Amino acid sequence: MNQPLYIHEIQDLFDDVQRSEIFEDQKMMTDAVPLFTVTEINEKYRTEKQLKDFDLKKFVLSHFEFLGAKVSLQKEEHLPISDHIERLWDELTRTSYEEKGTLLRLPKPYIVPGGRFNEFFYWDSYFIMLGLQVSGRVDMMEHIIENCAYLIHTYGFVPNGSRTHFLTRSQPPYFSLMLDLLFETTGDESIYSTYYGTLEKEYAFWMDGEAQLENGSAIKRVVKTDSGDVLNRYYDAENEPRPESYLIDIKDGKNAGPEFYRNIRSACESGWDFSSRWFADGEYIRTIETLNLAEIDLNCLLWHLEKTIARSSALQQLTEKEKHFNKKAALRRKLINTYFWDTDSGIYRDYHTKKNTVTPSVHTAMLYPLFLGLADAEQAKSVAEKISQEFLYPGGLVTTTKNSGQQWDLPNAWAPYQWLGFKSMKNYGFHGLAEQIRDHWCGNVERIYGNTGKLMEKYNALDTESIAGGGEYPNQDGFGWTNGVYLKLKNS
C-alpha cells in the first residue's frame, strides 16, 4: 500500500485510541502503518466496536503494523564516545522510498534523531550535519540537502517532520545554512546555483501573504507592524489537537482560548515545544500566545535566507535579483535592531506584535544575531555578559532563566544552543567563554555517557549527575543532534 495515511481518514478510530490511552506514548498510533485499506478498516471498526466483547487494542494490533517504534542503541562493549557515535550514524540511518502509513516518501537515505523519533526532522538535520562533516560523511550531508529540496518542491516547504500530520508547519528554516555547511566542506560553490529555485520557493513559503498585509495585521507567517514594517512569526494552519500529542493537547486546552491549538502548533514550528517563552503569564501552557509574537531567531534565519538568495543570484549574473534580495536583507537587518534589540536589558528579545514591545522572556534565541554576524561589537559584548552570568552552568547553556517544568526551559541544556553559543562567542572574539560553553556541555555529555552508555536528547545543566526531564515524553537516547554537536565541538 503506497498511499500515504492522513489521520483524519481514520479520525473516529484514532480519537478513540488516543482517548483510551491503550498505548503509553500517543505517538505510537500516529506512526502505525495500516495493513488494509482505510475504507476496510473504518467499515470493520464501525461494525465490530458494537460487539459486546470488542477489544480496542486487539483490533488496532490486528489492523496496523508498528514499525521501529523503539530502537535499542545500547552496545554490548563500552566504546569510546566518538567510536560509539560513528556506529550510531549507521544505526540511525533510514530510508523511505515509498509512503508507509503517515511516513512521507523521501528520495535519499536520512538520519533520524533516535528513540521515539523515527522520521526525518528539519532543523535537527542541520545539527546532525555538523557531526557528519567531522565524520567525513559528505554523501549523507548531500542526501539531507536533497531530501529537503525534494520536500520544498513537493510541498512548498520542509515539514516539521516527514509525516503527513506535519504538513501544516515547518521548523526553523535552516536550508540555506545547510548549503553553507556543505560549501564549507567541499568548496563547491555551484550548490548555491543548483538550489537557487529551492531557496526561492522556501522563501515564498515564509513570506506568503505579505502582499495582502495591512498595518497591524498578520497573515500566516508574516506580520505587519503598526508602523508598516514586515516581520515573521511561527505559524501552523490547523487549530486542532496535534495527533502525536492528542490527549495532552485536549487536557491542556481546557479553559484555554479559542486559538489554543494553533498557538501550540505554532510553537512546535519553532522547535521549542514547549517553553515559558510562549506563555502570556510566563507560567502556564494554557496562556500560550505564540501567534502574537515575532521571533528573533526566525527573523535572523530569514535574513540569512535572503542573503543566500542574493549570493545565488550573483553567481548566475542575475543582477536585479541580487540587488532585490540584498536590499531585503539590509532592511531586515535594520528591523532586527529596531524591533528585537532591547536597550534597557542589553539583549535581543522576541517582539509582541499586539503590545508593540519586546516580551519579558529572556532566552538563548538572543544568540542568533551573534551566530550570523548581525550584532555590532557593543551588542555582542552585552549579550555575551548575559550568557556568561545567567545561562552558563556546569552542564552547559540553559535555554531560558525560568524553571517552568517545560522541557525547553531551565534546567535543560539542548545541543543546538551549545553550538550556537560556542560559534557566537567565537565570532566576536570571546574565546574563553566559547571554550567554557564547549567544555561544560561536552563534559556533561561524557559523564552521562560514562554512566549510562547513552547519548541523550537533552541534558540537565544544573545537576550534571541527573538525567534531564520535563516535556511530554521521557528523555530520548540516540541522539542525532547531540551526536552531531558533540563531534563538532570536540573538533573545534
A few lines on this structure:
With 492 residues, the chain is mainly α.
Class from secondary-structure proportions: mainly alpha
Total number of β-strand segments? Answer: 16
Average pLDDT confidence is 95
**Biggest β-sheet description:** 3 strands, antiparallel
Stretches where pLDDT is under 50 for at least 5 consecutive residues are none
Side-by-side strand order of the widest sheet: 5-6-7
Distance between the termini: 46 Å
Beta-sheet strand percentage? Answer: 5-15%
Our Rg estimate from Cα atoms comes to 22 Å
- Count every helix, treating DSSP H or I runs of 4 or more residues as helices: 19
Helix content: 40-55%
Give the overall shape, derived from the CA principal axes.
globular
Protein traits:
mainly alpha; 3-stranded antiparallel sheet
